[in-house]
Amino acid sequence: MHARWMRAAAGGLLALAMSVAGAKDYSVEAYGAKADGTTLNTKSIQSAIDAAAKDGGTVVFKQGTYLSGSIFVKSGVTLRIDKGVTLLGSQRLEDYPVLPTRIAGIEMRWPAALVNVYEQKKAAIEGEGTIDGDGKVFWDSYWTLRKQYEPRGLRWASDYDAQRPRLIQVFNSSDVKVGGGLLLRRSGFWTLHICYSIDVTIDGVVIRNNEGGLGPSTDGIDIDSSKRILVQNADIDVNDDALCMKAGRDSDGQRVARTTEDVVIRDSIVREAAAGVTFGSETAGGFRNIEVYNITVLKKTPVGILFKSAHTRGGFGENLRIHDITMTDVPVVLRVTMNWNPSYSYAEIPKDIKDYPPYWKVLATPVPKEKGMARFKDVRIWNIKATGATTAFEVDGYKEAPLERFSLSKLDIQAKKGGYIYDSKDWQFTDVKLALSTPVDLENATSVRGLPAGTSVVRARQAKEDPTKKSFEEQDKT
């Protein structure tokens, strides 16, 4: 299936390239844009895009820095940001119009991104230039609000109330390409968000968000309830999840019920992040037929492979394939937690608060336990090389819904601790090399087969450090 849709995607991109090969260039300067870094060029750039949309043209820039608010790339248009060109995001929130979207797993109105492909077809954002969100002002506003909210039991609300623009949003669109060597930096929130979209290729992006501070929730690439997505040749340095699959949060995500499926992520490097490859925590719509391979994860990233959900999320993961991953000095090789970050994951409105936005009620809508447990099964992980790790496994599912049929082969892991595998069923280890100072603790791990002699022990569940606390402290460092 992957081969068929990848050939189809390649054919579509070739057709797009051929269709625009002879298209006219539309220079933003002709519409009044100034490359001085201080003139607000939103209207001028948008005028050039609108003109190019009439014949499928390409919008181009002379070298320089162009200050702008939200711009919207239209169907048939290529936004080309060449080397020496910087598109600089405005620091005024009013320059980002509020539109319907999905953010952090729920549908709500939210500021548009700096660059948007919003309900369009056959569009591209490419070049060797820079898209710079200049996001520190938005990071600071978030921290100010969160410090006010946490003592009131509103940690979960701070991410939604502190509205911050993403850098690039591809929303409800198809046949979109982003890449060509683009440098994406200092995003106010998530860097590249692909939501409700089909046939999107991300090829050749460099993401640098840890410049001028460490912005909270500055994810690298988020693939959210989308299909037939290819991500390759990414180089990522962020302060949250680097390569992340999402599919909706809690009751709202279950209402939407859109799966993330037919995804390939490959040939990329994660230099710093909260985790290298992540599924969740927005799992409600489920994940299906996803392959991740040829990924390097370096030591400033606390977790290599992460599955995270919560007992109100629901959803599933099946036919997930992760292989040929190299980790160097990454503390935790594989973490699976179904009770991730409770203060964020579980929304409860204090009784003394009577006036609150409608989305608070959405977030606080109860989810029955049976619908709230995410179910992961048929996961294959192979060819993993990890050196300098602290812990090999931190795996904790549900007794009522164990993590089923995980196949792990050709693992070569050096770690101080084996860690633990809890609430799992039918795990098969094959051809594994584990150099561990302590064994792997097993509890309610039914039919776990193939671990080398002496590397595991069955005993009562041990008290353990909350893994969500560690990873979230890493995410929140300033």
UniProtKB/TrEMBL annotation:
Pfam family, one: Glyco_hydro_28
Transmembrane residue ranges: none
Signal peptide stretch: 1-23
SMART domains membership: PbH1
Keywords, sorted A to Z: Glycosidase, Hydrolase, Signal
Keyword S-adenosyl-L-methionine: no
GO molecular function: polygalacturonase activity
Region feature (Disordered): 453-478
Biased composition (Basic and acidic residues): 462-478
Gene Ontology biological-process annotations: carbohydrate metabolic process
Protein family according to the UniProt entry: Belongs to the glycosyl hydrolase 28 family.
Protein name per the record: Glycosyl hydrolases family 28
